[in-house]
From TrEMBL:
The lineage of its organism: Bacteria, Pseudomonadati, Pseudomonadota, Alphaproteobacteria, Rhodobacterales. GO terms for molecular function: acetolactate synthase activity; acetolactate synthase regulator activity. This is Acetolactate synthase small subunit. Keywords: Amino-acid biosynthesis, Branched-chain amino acid biosynthesis, Transferase. The gene is ilvH. It comes from Actibacterium atlanticum. It holds the Pfam family ACT_AHAS_ss. Residues 30-105 form the ACT domain.
Length: 186
């Protein structure tokens, strides 16, 4: 048998072809990380992501325990199941980290984001922007004769959908807080 035929025959039955079909599936995960509220902790967490080439889709940080001086970092990231497990394990090894929770896999959770949209508009476009804002339950928090600033709270998907509808009407600028998330129930 020639080397070419042998090579072709092996590729049909090679163990290297038995790749897990889900290995390359990138999923979005929301991680809640409780850390000491001290200088440099956020830089260490972000350094873990950037040093290993992981991307952060959303990041929010705030002190949640004033007496215990602890903060909650909510991170939305994407990766294969293996990469997400690596991220959680590596976060858990950072000394000022107390807890790491993957809200995506631990059960139902509530995710919300706040966004501000500056939309220019006159005439029919102005009326349409106000109509859409009403449908999405967005509040007009500022208004001039040439523009509005709308405030909208909801899921990231709701924020994205509102932005897409406002683009053709004159979307000028968007400011987003990033995702805040909590597990449901007790």
């Amino acid at each position: 048998m020639s080397a070419l035929k042998l090579k072709k025959g092996l590729s049909k039955h090679s163990a290297y072809d038995l790749k897990d079909p889900n290995a390359d599936v990138r999923e979005s995960h929301t991680l809640a990380v409780i850390v000491d509220n001290e200088a440099g902790v956020l830089a260490r967490v972000i350094g873990l992501f950037s040093g290993r080439g992981y991307n952060i889709d959303s990041l929010t940080v705030a002190e949640v325990d004033h007496e215990g001086h602890r903060s909650r970092i909510t991170i939305v990231t994407r990766g294969t199941p293996t990469i997400i497990e690596q991220i959680k394990a590596q976060l858990g090894r950072i000394v000022p980290v107390h807890d790491v929770h993957d809200l995506t896999v631990e059960g139902p959770s509530v995710e919300r984001e706040l966004a501000l949209f500056k939309v220019e508009g006159a005439g029919d476009k102005r009326v349409e922007a106000l109509r859409l804002a009403d449908i999405f339950r967005a509040n007009a928090v500022d208004s001039t004769l040439e523009s509005f600033v709308f405030e909208l709270t909801g899921s990231p998907e709701k924020i994205d959908a509102f932005a897409e509808l406002m683009r053709p009407l004159g979307l000028i600028e968007v400011a987003r807080t990033g995702v805040a998330a909590l597990a449901r129930g007790v």
